[in-house]
C-alpha cells in the first residue's frame, strides 16, 4: 500500500511507521466529528489593491472598506494588483523546488537557510498531532547572509527581492488596518521590522497514506498578519461558521490572513481564523508565507477599553504557545489571554 519515497522526501513514512500501521490496522478516520465535515469550496473575498494607490478618494475608501470587511467577516482575503511581478513569483517557486528536491539528509544537516529546516512532527504520539510537510522557517535577518546558501547561490537574490516586496505589501495592509482603528499607520512599522519578521518556505509531499492526514494541523497564526503565495494544487481549508471550507486557488492572487495579534489589537474586530492544509495523494504542494511579527518585548494590547484581552508581550505569548504544544500537542492561543 505504501509507495516508495523518493530520495528528496523527508522520512515521514519511516518516522511515523508505528502510527501509520496502527491507522491501517484500525481503519479508523482520524478526523474529529464536525471538524472533518467539508461544506464545499469557497472563493475568498478578492480585493484589487490598485484602489489603495488611486488618487480617487472614493476608490481608495472602497478598497479600505473591502479589506476591513474581509478581515472582520472572514479573517482571510485575496489580493490582486499587489505589486509583485507574477514572473518573479514563478522564478521564486522554481528556486524553492530546487531546495526541497535536495535529499533529506543534506537539507537536515548542511545548515541551509540558517539551519531552519523542519519536517513533520517527530515527537507525535498520535495521528491527531501528525502533519505531513517540510519547511524552512527563516528570520529575515538571515536572508542576506551568504553562509546560509551554500550551493544554492541563486536562491539568495530571489529571496532578498521577495522579502523586500512582501515587507512593503505587509506594511501597506497593516497600515490600512491600524488606520481603520484610528491609530497611526506607522505604529506597526516601529515594532515589526526586518529583525522580527519571518519567511517560511513550505513543501507538502505526496501523501500515500490517507487524504485525511493534515499537511499542517488546524491552527491560528500567532503574528499580526500572514501573506501567502501558493500553487494551484489546493488543500488550504479554513473554519467558517463552524464548518471547514476548502479555499479555491487563484493563480493571480496572494492570500492574506489575520493573525492572533491583530485580533487582540482590534479588540475582536478583526478575526484570526483557524485553518489547516490537507495532503494530496497525487501531487505535491508548495507555498511561501511572509509573517509580520513584532519584537518579543513588544506590548500587545487592545486599542480601546473595555478590553476583551489581558495585556501581554509577544514573547510571553510565544512562550505560552510553545508550552501548550509541548504539553498537550496543540496550540491553545487566544483563550489563554482572555480577561
UniProtKB/TrEMBL annotation:
Record InterPro entries: DIOX_N (IPR026992), IPNS-like_FE2OG_OXY (IPR044861), IPNS-like_sf (IPR027443), Iron_ascorbate_oxido_reductase (IPR050231), Oxoglu/Fe-dep_dioxygenase_dom (IPR005123)
Any one GO BP annotation for this protein: gibberellin metabolic process
Gene3D superfamilies: B-lactam Antibiotic, Isopenicillin N Synthase, Chain
Stretches of the chain forming a coiled coil according to its record: 152-179
Domain Fe2OG dioxygenase stretches: 195-294
Molecular function per GO: gibberellin 2-beta-dioxygenase activity; metal ion binding
Signal peptide start-end: none
Catalyzed reactions per annotation: gibberellin A1 + 2-oxoglutarate + O2 = gibberellin A8 + succinate + CO2
EC numbers, comma separated: 1.14.11.13
Domain of life per record: Eukaryota
Pfam families according to UniProt: 2OG-FeII_Oxy, DIOX_N
Key words of the record: Coiled coil, Dioxygenase, Iron, Metal-binding, Oxidoreductase
Family statement: Belongs to the iron/ascorbate-dependent oxidoreductase family. GA2OX subfamily.
Record protein name field: gibberellin 2beta-dioxygenase
Organism of provenance: Protea cynaroides
Amino acid at each position: 500500500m505504501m509507495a516508495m519515497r523518493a530520495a528528496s522526501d523527508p522520512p515521514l513514512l519511516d518516522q511515523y511507521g508505528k502510527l501509520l500501521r496502527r491507522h491501517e490496522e484500525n481503519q479508523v478516520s482520524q478526523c474529529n466529528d464536525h471538524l472533518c465535515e467539508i461544506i464545499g469550496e469557497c472563493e475568498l473575498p478578492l480585493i484589487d489593491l490598485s484602489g489603495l494607490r488611486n488618487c480617487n478618494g472614493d476608490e481608495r475608501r472602497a478598497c479600505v472598506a473591502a479589506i476591513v470587511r474581509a478581515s472582520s467577516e472572514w479573517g482571510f482575503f485575496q489580493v490582486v494588483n499587489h505589486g509583485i511581478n507574477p514572473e518573479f513569483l514563478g522564478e521564486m517557486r522554481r528556486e524553492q523546488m530546487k531546495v526541497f528536491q535536495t535529499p533529506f539528509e543534506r537539507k537536515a544537516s548542511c545548515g541551509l537557510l540558517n539551519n531552519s529546516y523542519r519536517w513533520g512532527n517527530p515527537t507525535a504520539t498520535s495521528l491527531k498531532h501528525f502533519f505531513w510537510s517540510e519547511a524552512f522557517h527563516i528570520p529575515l535577518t538571515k536572508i542576506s547572509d551568504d553562509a546560509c546558501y551554500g550551493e544554492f547561490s541563486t536562491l539568495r537574490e530571489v529571496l532578498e527581492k521577495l522579502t523586500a516586496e512582501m515587507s512593503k505589501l505587509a506594511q501597506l495592509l497593516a497600515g490600512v488596518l491600524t488606520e481603520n482603528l484610528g491609530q497611526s499607520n506607522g505604529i506597526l512599522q516601529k515594532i515589526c521590522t526586518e529583525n522580527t519578521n519571518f519567511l517560511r518556505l513550505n513543501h507538502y509531499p505526496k501523501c500515500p497514506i490517507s487524504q485525511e492526514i493534515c499537511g499542517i494541523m488546524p491552527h491560528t497564526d500567532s503574528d499580526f498578519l500572514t501573506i501567502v503565495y501558493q500553487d494551484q494544487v489546493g488543500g488550504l481549508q479554513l473554519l467558517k461558521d463552524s464548518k471547514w471550507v476548502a479555499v479555491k486557488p487563484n493563480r493571480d492572487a496572494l492570500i492574506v490572513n489575520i493573525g492572533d495579534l491583530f485580533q487582540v489589537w482590534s479588540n475582536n474586530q478583526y478575526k484570526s481564523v483557524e485553518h489547516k492544509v490537507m495532503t494530496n495523494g497525487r501531487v505535491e504542494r508548495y507555498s511561501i508565507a511572509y509573517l509580520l511579527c513584532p519584537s518579543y518585548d513588544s506590548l500587545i494590547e487592545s486599542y480601546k477599553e473595555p478590553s476583551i484581552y489581558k495585556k501581554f508581550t509577544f514573547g510571553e505569548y510565544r512562550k505560552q504557545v510553545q508550552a501548550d504544544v509541548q504539553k498537550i500537542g496543540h496550540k491553545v492561543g487566544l483563550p489563554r489571554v482572555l480577561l
